[in-house]
Amino acid sequence: MNLFHTTLSVSFGLGLFAGSALCQNATDIVIPGTGVQLTQVGDDFEDEGWDFIPNNPKSSEDIDEKQRLPMGKSTNGRWYEGAKRGHPDVVKRVPTPPGGLFGSEGALLLKSLQTGIPKSPSFTMHQDDFICNVQYRLGGTVKVDQSPSMTTRVFLPPLDQWEKRNGPHFAFRAAVETTIQETKSKFLFASKQEKDEVYWPGLFILRATRNEDRKSVPYAHFRIRADKRGGDFMGPEIKTMGWWTLGISFSPDGLTHYFAKPGVEELTKDDYLATAMPYGYRCEEVRSFFYNVVNSDNGKDWSTDWIIDDPKFYVSKNSRFVNKK
After folding, report:
1. Segment (H or E) for 243
2. What is the pLDDT of residue 203?
3. In this structure, which topology does domain 3-317 adopt according to CATH?
4. Hey, where are the domains in the chain?
């Protein structure tokens, strides 16, 4: 396997940032892209007929408890709208921007205007989800002992083309499961029962500003979800725009590992950002991965244009990797 060993507390790579987020010993850290690619999931967007059927109005269950069936989906069956939040308003195959993967002719544009309740601006930041169909195409979740990982390329436009708002603009995340003990009370008695708990670690890309020579200057940086208490923690500054490669992996010990590098080359141990145990949970199974597109939901300002390419999913070996339920 392509992994490396460390006994440090959470540490950060890229040569851009150093610090710690929680005291947690990491053992074998899986480099995203290790093992066997599962071609049943992911996409390269090379099909000129690639299309997404939005089935509007889209879902906003997280705000008003309305799913608005049927959900949006891609015609190739590899992507779908989640029930919790809607899909991006624009999901469109576009020519690959310069500097992309060798031979890539197509990539995917994601952008949104209405990220909250359709046709009802909230003037509060909201997000849309674009979900990779992993669990259903594989016939079940993937156990963490298979060291699952996911990678993607993301094109970051120049900062002057971003929505003029500080805060999160985009995220690359995973949907994963663990088992928790839930306390149930009945009359004077209490009992504990096991319960499946879903959570969503990931890499967020944020815009911020700082004062330089008495001027407010924008910059971008990563935030990582999440530390042991469930709080996001600061990642490195993003000093170059254009193509980036992002990755998330899960080792058999249930820890989550985050990687990023500028450019489109495959990830290596030098691109390691952090290891964490989000919410104090040890991951047991991976359901899917997805993207967030975020804006101010004011009815007039579009999100930043985000272009993705070549999302892939890997396991350590291509045998009995699926945990059917």
Report:
1. strand 242-250
2. 98
3. Jelly Rolls (2.60.120)
4. 3-317
